[in-house]
Amino acid sequence: MSGKNGKDFENFVYVDNSGIHGKGIFTSANIPKGYKIMDIKGEVINGKECERREDEEDNVYIFWNGDNCYIDTVKTKKIKYINHNCDFNCDVVENDKDELMLIAYRDIKAGEELTIDYGYEDIYDGCGCNDCTNLDN
Ligand SMILES: [Zn+2]
Is residue 52 pLDDT above 50, yes or no? Predict the structure, then answer.
């Protein structure tokens, strides 16, 4: 389904201003559904440290990797900028203990912003994605 030949689309991923929020990541190539886009790597921390960083450092760049395992991507150049969109086009899947993978949830066209469902309750209040702002009166 993904990770074919170990190739991915990371070289085509770039950071630019987002219509959703601040900066975002975009693709300069078409990406077919199910293909691996890039690894999600960073510092591996536990749940307690994750909470501390979120509370004390306002760190919003932490991904959950199951089993009390979290990946802090604050020092990365690209993946940390991925935005939430209720109409997301990417999915995060488990790779191994220290690593997640970003894959295409559907066919993605060159120039599109890459987005995921952050998946926690608070994000849906005051969400700035196109889906939600279009419903807003
Ligand atoms: Zn939304």
Answer: yes
